[in-house]
Amino acid sequence: MAAHVHLKREMMAASTAELTWGGDLARITAKLSAAQDVHSLLHTAAFQIRQVFNAGVAIFAQTTDEPVFAAAASVGISRDEIWPVRIGFDSSIVKSLDTARHAAELDLPEDERANISLVRSVLLVPVRRQQDLLGIVSLGQNPMAEPYDEGEVALLEAVASHLALCFDNFRLREQAYELQRVREIQERLLPMVPAKLGSGFEIAHYWRPARAVSGDYFDAIDLGAGKRGVCIADVVGKGMPAALLMSSVQAAVKAVASDSIPPSDLCSRVNRVLAGNLAPGNFVTMFYSVMDTAARTLTYTNAGHCAPMLIRRNGSTERLASGGALLGVFRNWVFEQQMVALEAGDRLVLFTDGITELMDSTEEEFGEERLEGLLRNCRGLDAEQMKQRVLEAIAAFNAGEYQDDITVVVMAVD
Question: Rounded to whole angstroms, what are the CA distances from 137 to 104, 230, 258, 360?
């Protein structure tokens, strides 16, 4: 009977503790969710954990670009004690923290053991979001010098889980803000191309990233003397890496382009800039041309890009494919160039493979043949109308679900 009463009392005590922990968890998560930034989030977490456990608390996070977790917030531990502590990404501590662990149980090298001893760690809890370790919570000894029981460990793990969620939300929000800023910069760097490039020449263009930023580039550079450097380029890949590489291509083209530099020479120079500086598997395709509005000619070099379509008044099509290899792979490649005459009624269309490789719900590609047929059928339209017809066709083809960056440039000769 006595044993039964003792067991019943233990169960009631455990139930009461669970209710208390539930209240603590609800209060802490509410406080964390109300934080306005990462700094206040981490300090709020440290303070709230201190309130519950009445022990020294330190929270480690990546505070610089170095691959280490450093003290980001603490309560009950002096700054002098916690400031020197660094926990490397490749440390035994990090490798051991798949779940909450008592510090005494960890098999650590002497230097790492001394490291966590500086903050008198008793319990270490990972702040993890899926597979990413975002930080570490260190809890010191409680006033009674008793080991933390399963319920207390579970509470701290639940707090760490919610902390990771909030931390990740702030990180994603910051990344979204940075991407938006990069996109704004990209858009400001896009050329301010006038609708008319000269007497009898109209141009229209469209640029759309698949993600926040784009690896596509186009331009119509005023070279003076009635000449324009008309180009389009595409970096392999999407997103931030492609955008950063494309900004380098844009800068290189702007630096080299002039009325005295032929297209083949410009491509050779840009190629030498890129070759040897690109990661394996990276490359750039580019079509660069010099349009002479007085002579009505287009001299071009195609460095591995989708061959632009020159639609003649009579409906025949010429593909501007001559040039050479894509950029950034063969440092000493010798590029060729060709010249075509431009006549009244001609329509020149430059595009990236985001259009021709666009797939519908059955994974059928839009394709170059479909694009050529569309352009031939609407060759009587002006540049802006023709561009709009292309955009309407691809939007209808895949219900507006774009898988890649899209750029199209239409030039009309009157």
Answer: 15, 57, 59, 48
Q: For domain 20-179, give the CATH superfamily.
A: GAF domain (3.30.450.40)
Query: How far apart (Å, rounded) are the C-alpha atoms in residues 306 and 289?
Result: 14
Residues 358 and 413: their CA atoms lie apart, in Å, by 28
Indicate if the pLDDT at residue 359 is higher than 50. Answer: yes
Q: Give the whole-angstrom CA distance, residue 108 versus residue 104.
A: 9
Q: Which of 356, 359, 381, 382 is nearest to 370 (CA)?
A: 356
State the pairing for strand pair 196-198/309-311.
unpaired
Cα dihedral sign for 170, 176, 180, 181?
positive
* Lowest mean pLDDT across 108-112, 209-213, 342-346: 209-213
Q: What pLDDT does 3 receive? A: 42
For 348-373, give one letter per residue: b (16+ CB within 10 A) or e: bbbbbbbbbebeeeeeebbebebbbe
| pLDDT of amino acid 408 | 95
- pLDDT for residue 190: 67
Quickly name the fold that domain 191-413 has: Phosphatase 2c; domain 1 (3.60.40)
Q: Any idea where the domains of the chain sit in the sequence? A: 20-179, 191-413
